[in-house]
Amino acid sequence: METKRIGIMGGTFDPIHYGHLVTAEAARGQFQLDQVLFLPSGTPPHKDPTQVTDTKHRYTMAVLATLTNPHFEVSRVDIDRTGTTYTIDTLRILQDLHGTAVRLFFITGADAILEIMGWKDSQELLGMAEFIAATRPGFQLEDQRGTIHHWFSSQNKRLHILQVPAMAISSTDIRRRVRKGESIRYLVPETVDYYIRKNRLYAPDVQNSAVHHE
Ligand code: ATP
Ligand code: MG
Fold first, then answer.
1. Residue 4 scores a pLDDT above 70
2. Which residues share a beta bridge with 6?
3. Residue 207 neighbours by CB under 8 Å, 6+ apart
């Protein structure tokens, strides 16, 4: 059986935006991935759970955003687990699901890869997947290259650096824009923009909300 190459893109996706999508598509092309799985987080270990939008909404927005790409899929693996979800467990579950005929590629932005380096189980993680660190505006991957290469040197080139067309987009900035009544058009897919409005996510100011969609 031919080995399936699966990209995994974890995130809070609160909300999903074009930075995530362009990164996933670049990884798919560069590493000949058969599929990219988007994994919205359940209870994120590194974020305050009370500050994160309901998983139902984050999952639905991810589905809407990936609908038109036949290689993109949204996985509920992290959502459906109770308690704190750890990446190591996620990788184990996905490996079990697909058996040995799968090669996992864990895709992260420059900021997230630096975080992962600090995790206690990072060495074990490296044994389970290859890591793709995507460039991201505002985060200096290049400066850290020495550190990253040192860290990965014992791991037979299991870290790849991926140049992504620069998108200075973050979910934090999108939430701020919605709150202030500013446009997020062209930062997120149109369906996600509509979904945010329809469900009144990110608490837009009432007096500003009329200006979005004329
Ligand atoms: P927040 O501002 O809430 O942290 P975010 O925009 O960073 O949101 P996440 O859900 O935290 O989005 O990120 C999921 C993954 O996507 C991470 O690995 C992150 O580094 C990566 N990523 C997010 N935005 C970009 C971008 N514009 N370019 C490249 N990678 C990105
Ligand atoms: Mg982030």
1. yes
2. 35, 104
3. 181
- Report the C-alpha gap between 95 and 103 in whole angstroms: 8
Give the confidence band of 111 by pLDDT, cuts at 50, 70, 90. confident
Tally of CA atoms within 13 A in the half-sphere of 43 that contains its CB: 7
**Ligand 1: centre distance to CA 1 (Å):** 34
Give the pLDDT confidence score for residue 160 in this predicted structure.
Answer: 87
Q: Which residues line the pocket of ligand 1, CB cutoff 6 A?
A: 11-14, 19-20, 23, 108-109, 111-112, 134, 136, 164, 167, 169-172
Q: Which of these CATH numbers, 3.40.50.620, 2.40.10.220, 3.10.105.10, 3.30.2130.10, describes 4-210?
A: 3.40.50.620
